[in-house]
């Protein structure tokens, strides 16, 4: 595409010019339009004695050249839950500590309970709803002290309790910009910052901080910068969480739907009731399809199990296209496939609505 790629560390000299320092020396790059998409970096609280090997963040852990025998994971959000699940499958003794009573606070509670059950079946330690008073490095590894006085001692500790925008070091002042308290840049609906020709997209602007949405934000920002017509980023966003088992969600949780005053019907489709689920040995996966009783249209889909991040797109398309739930019943789906859980969930809804 005729794009000149310059590798190095960039610093604003003025609102239109960067100084880039790289392996090939230093050069200046000027742009009539600028898009900042530098991502995010792990939060490092001052009280945590990070050393990059025993006490690590989610970037530093890749620098280890061997697995720890035991690992404490601090933080039950997406990154903490993903890493805890992965390391437990690698025969690492894992204890996950989270200050709130549930993992993945934004995910439907029924799906979270299935994840927690699966992790406990793998003999992972779950310390939920507990506060940490101290994390320290010892001769044997890392020691975590909980508010109730108990301690957890493991060979290593992974701290996954937050990320912040990675705009520090860009010299934003020279461009007339400033990051907020979370290191993120504020943008409008076109991803334009307070400096009209400077745009920002991706993790550096904060929520939802997904690779999928970041790509779309960058597309829209580039089009706006050059006055090219394009559609805005869709507001109906699917989330894929790559724990083991995998989780995916689109639309409000059951609790959120009820809080909004919606009269809903919930249909359940279980992997174990499909031939494909039985063949691949995943009989615990589940789809939770939420339908608005008045319109008979799906408003949300929540899944846990093999391929959930792929399968959730069926729910996403049904919601976006405003299809009635009976669409799933009428469609012919390949056999044997996991997609048939949508038929099972739709039949469950049909029985609840019409008996």
List keywords for this structure.
single chain; 355 residues; alpha/beta; five-stranded parallel beta sheet; five-stranded antiparallel beta sheet; 9 helices; 20 strands; 25% helix; 27% strand; globular
Q: Can you give a write-up of this model?
A:
This protein is 25% helix and 27% strand. The protein has 355 residues and is of the alpha/beta class.
Q: Topology, pairings included?
A:
Elements: E1 9-14, E2 17-22, E3 25-30, E4 34-36, E5 40-42, E6 55-56, E7 70-74, H1 78-89, E8 93-98, H2 109-121, E9 125-128, E10 132-137, E11 142-146, E12 151-154, E13 156-159, E14 163-165, H3 172-175, E15 198-200, H4 211-225, E16 238-241, E17 247-250, H5 254-259, E18 264-270, H6 275-280, E19 286-292, E20 297-304, H7 308-320, H8 326-330, H9 341-354
Parallel strand pairs: 4-15, 6-13, 7-8, 7-13, 8-9
Antiparallel strand pairs: 1-2, 2-3, 5-14, 10-11, 11-12, 16-17, 17-20, 18-19, 19-20
Straight-line distance between termini: 59 Å
- Portion in strands: 25-35%
Taking the sheet with the most strands, its summary is: 5 strands, parallel
Number of strands: 20
* Helix and strand run: EEEEEEEHEHEEEEEEHEHEEHEHEEHHH
Low-confidence stretches: none
The helix-and-strand class reads alpha/beta
Widest β-sheet, arrangement of strands: 6-13-7-8-9
* Average pLDDT level: 96
Number of helices: 9
